[in-house]
Amino acid sequence: MVPKPILVTTPPPATSAPSPPLNAVSPLKTEEKPQTQTLKTPTTTTQKAITKPSPSSSTTKTTPQQRVELKRKTNSWVPALMLNAFDDIINNFIDPPLKPSIDPRHVLSQNFAPVHELPPTECEVIEGSLPPSLDGAYIRNGPNPQFLPRGPYHLFDGDGMLHALRISHGKKPTLCSRYVKTYKYTMENDAGFPLIPNVFSGFNSLVASAARGSLSAARFLTGQFNPANGIGLANTSLAFFGNRLFALGESDLPYVVNVTPDGDIETLGRHDFDGKLTFSMTAHPKIDPDTAECFAFRYGPVPPFLTYFRFDGNGKKHEDVPIFSMLTPSFLHDFAITKKYAIFCDIQLGLNPLDMISGGSPVGSVASKVPRIGILPRDAKDESMMKWFEVPGFNIIHAINAWEEDEGRTVVLVAPNILSMEHALERMELVHAMVEKVRIELDTGIITRQPVSARNLDFAVINPAFVGKKNRFVYAAVGDPMPKISGVVKLDVSKGEERRDCTVGCRMYGEGCYGGEPFFVAREEGGEEDDGYLVSYVHDERKGESRFLVMDAKSPELDVVAAVRLPRRVPYGFHGLFVKESELRKVSLS
């Protein structure tokens, strides 16, 4: 039996109704209403997803494999109920969600509320016309928990859901929303309740960590899940390389996905690159537009805290390069490449297990740490040529681009600097990110920093053809505050030397309207750097409607070229990608 679905609707901003219980678990269903949004849960805590087999089932002919599966579920029924009861005790008494940053009633409010899957559904172009170069699919990843959280929940903890707008000229565009069918999603969907604790919100004290660690061990020993098959969410971003399209989350291996000709999204499986990738991988790999090589890394809480690796143009993985000169575990979410180098930022946000003793999170800022930038030849086979440079006060979550100057003797990095790193995970509305251009003279170690804009900007992109090469234009999302995005600005980073704001274009979405990370799609290959379009999903919170917006990246006002009304709202999320029709065909054939 599957538990009855609950409804997720949109609350008025000033509502002070009693909070619903946190200990019930139900699959999510949404009902779109412009002005209301309430999380509804059953009042009981008993799980109905795992049931004893019906007596009448003995009259049904079953295969040996089905009988084994039935026996497994029957044998795990009693342990599941006991462990779910223990989970309720943890979530309601040992570690309830006391902070707003991990209270699901706060985190999942308004357009952050999850939605159900949507099969390919036709959309209406309500303004302008879609340009011919938009031939393929725009796909955006983001968190979308399949069950209402039982206790603490952070924005980063939701199951990955892909929202794809398939554009084929001569046909109406279609929107499709599908979960990435990770091992975690599949096992929990089969069980009917969460099995794996939330990484970002479930270990905020020593007692909570011990309790949830014991619970996870018991679920493993009773056969409810096997962490060797991955516990990742694949909820962060997408990448296309080696003729495959990947959904990515940095706590697991990539998952191969595909967009079918009719616009549906398929999960093809967890990918280990012929057994050469055994652990996790960054959600921000960098693809060289000239060689099709892909560069990536992983980080973790035990040495080596950083490991670098790369793939050739066919997706074949090279050997790992462990970086032991990173002396402490750091939250290394993104990096940059040039034609010669890979560039890493060792920031003040780190992994601090000792903080759990005082009731803190294992991930937090370390005020005494001096941030560093590490530069390694990108074809290195070991870390012997890694150079580290101290850059006080320079903390980045995302990198925008990097390149070389002075015949390779100088490296330039452009990235948003987080000025309030202590709030990066718990109070994102207090975070201010200021885009800077950092010049590093490799021979002398002299570092020069120049602000590009004083506005609160992040989720910035460039023309993908300029990754690793000197570029001029950056398109960044405007935090209002983060994680809400009220518009997009165009920056000319070549003006940084003039010591003034480099904004040369801007479009705000309007009152009550918020978007996401923009993505640049070139009008044609080999054209001018800014000759193309910016695309993003935008949601109108007053009307409860979402649109797909296409903007002219070359114009000072980032003029709207086309707008598509979507059949239902698309929740706010993380990173997106436009995949050309020619690339989608390669995925289908691989």
From TrEMBL:
Give positions of region: Disordered: 1-71
GO cellular component terms, semicolon-separated: chloroplast stroma
Q: Where is the composition biased (Pro residues)?
A: 10-21
Q: Which UniProt keywords apply?
A: Dioxygenase, Iron, Metal-binding, Oxidoreductase
What domain of life? Answer: Eukaryota
List where Low complexity composition bias occurs.
Answer: 35-64
Q: Please tell me whether the keyword Iron is annotated for this protein.
A: yes
Q: Does the keyword Iron apply?
A: yes
Residues annotated as binding Fe cation: 284, 333, 398, 575
Q: Please provide, alphabetically and separated by semicolons, the GO molecular function terms listed in this UniProt record.
A: carotenoid dioxygenase activity; metal ion binding
- Hey, which family's this protein in? Belongs to the carotenoid oxygenase family.
Q: What is this protein called?
A: Putative carotenoid cleavage dioxygenase 4, chloroplastic
Organism equals: Glycine soja
